[in-house]
Amino acid sequence: MEIRKATVNDARACAALMKHLGYLTTSQIMKARLPEITSHPDYHPLIALYDGKTVGMIGLIKSFYYERDGIYVRIAAIVVDKEYQNLGIGKALIKSAEQWTKTIEADVIALNSGDRPERSNAHKFYKKLGFAEKSIGFAKSLS
User: Is-contact 22 66, C-beta < 8 A?
Assistant: First the structure.
C-alpha cells in the first residue's frame, strides 16, 4: 500500500471514490476541482493505492480557531472503496493525516460524519482510532 498526495491526474479515481460517499461527482467535475484543491497551501489531499489501484482518499484542510489561538485540521472527506475496506487502508489514511497535522503544528484533527444508519460502521471506526463525539453539525443550502 502507498499513500501519496493527490494530483490532477487522480481526478477520475477520486470521482469514483466520491460515489462511495453518495456524491455523484464526474471525472470532468473533479478534474476542474482538483487544481484549486491541490494548489491551495491549506489543503492536503491524499490518496491510497493498493496493488497500483487508487482505493482510498482523504481530504484535509488547515483551519484556524476563532475561540483560541492555534490551528486544527478538518477532514473534509475520507473514503475507502467498499471492496478494499478492512485492510488497514482507512487507518493508514488517518495516520498520514495525523502526521501532516503534526507537521503543520496543529493540535487537533476533526471531522464531521452524517448521522445516518449507513454511517454507523464509519462512526465505530473513528471511535476506535481515538476520535470522540463532540458536536452536532448543521448545514444550510443557499442555492
Answer: no
